[in-house]
Amino acid sequence: MTIKDSTIVATGENVVMPETVTEPVKTFKPRHPYQVLRTLPKDATPAQQDSAIQATFQPKEVRYSERPDTLHLPGYGKGKSALEITPLPKYYKESFFAGDSLFHPERSAGRYGVAGETVPYTVRGDSSMSLILFLGFIIMVISASGSRSFILKQLKSIFYVPKNLSTAFSETSSEMRFQIFMVVLTSLLYSIIFLYYCTRYVSDTLIIDSHYQLTAIFLGMTLAYFISKTMVSMAVNWAFFGMKKSLQWIKVSSFLITSEGMLLFPVVLLLSFFNMNVKSALISVLIILVLVKSLTFFKSYLIFFRRKGYFLQNILYFCALEIVPLAAFWGFVDMMSNYLKINF
């Protein structure tokens, strides 16, 4: 029996071992440093590893292709080598979409996309408004300290009316300037409160982007309200009660507006710099208004109707010259706020 290509050849009873066929031994050449390192023992030092890698891999000179770059955008000419001195095409330096607004959204959104949610406006984040309030507070404190005797006399005169109006104290020029300043400051405080009301309860997107313009609009409206109410009261009082009582009422009314501004200042500071709730601020303003209007009602009775005992006439006078103008002014502010908002 003969088995070819096997290791044993059987012929009869004898077994003869054939000659072994030798095959060419293939030499293993590592292609990666990892394969070289695997042939070394585990305790090989870094120097031995480096020597083995240098003995296996021989550095050769790198020759870069001199063929031109054929990968270019449609509409442009054939590519050029980076080694050329001539100016490179524009697309070698910047992206093809570099001029598109979608590629640079930080520049200008244009007509693409939707505007994100804006940060609510606060006076605390506005350096100019903060500076105005700070200067107003400093001037108010300095002026009040210089007019301390005038303020005390006015507080005493609230519950007392001299029988002879000629004996009533007169105001100096500095005291008049202090009251005029307080009227302007009170108007500014009201304008800031109206601004917070408008952005909180009406709309946070208005046709006027500048909060300075909105504050100026509310400031002008408040000043116009105080001036027009003073002129109407002066004309009515002069016609029915005479010039002396009319001038006395103007002094009392100016001092009440000054007191109103002093009471409003802490509310505006809490609203602007201490995150006071707008609803709580409006309630505080309402309480201040009720207090001031109550003193106005009492003072009008002492000046005009105490001697005659006309209590009902005092109610009519107070409603006609105080409540109705105040309600009309508030309605005008609310109407203006709704007019300024953007209706989608």
Strand content: under 5%
Query: Which residues form runs of ≥5 with pLDDT under 50?
Result: 1-18
Q: Pairing-aware structural class of the strands and helices?
A: mainly alpha
pLDDT average, as an integer? 78
Shape type? elongated
Describe this protein's structure:
- By secondary structure, this protein is mostly helical.
- The chain is 58% helix and 2% strand.
- The protein contains nine helices and two strands.
- The chain has helices at residues 33-39, 46-56, 127-146, 148-157, 173-202, 211-241, 243-273, 278-305, 311-340; strands at residues 9-11, 14-16.
- A two-stranded antiparallel ribbon has the order 1-2.
- A hairpin with a 2-residue loop joins strand 1 and strand 2 (14-16).
- Helix 3 (127-146) packs antiparallel against helix 5 (173-202), helix 5 crosses helix 6 (211-241) and helix 6 packs antiparallel against helix 7 (243-273).
- The chain is elongated and about 130 Å long.
- The chain starts with 8 loop residues before the first strand and ends with a helix.
- Mean pLDDT is 78; it is low at 1-18.
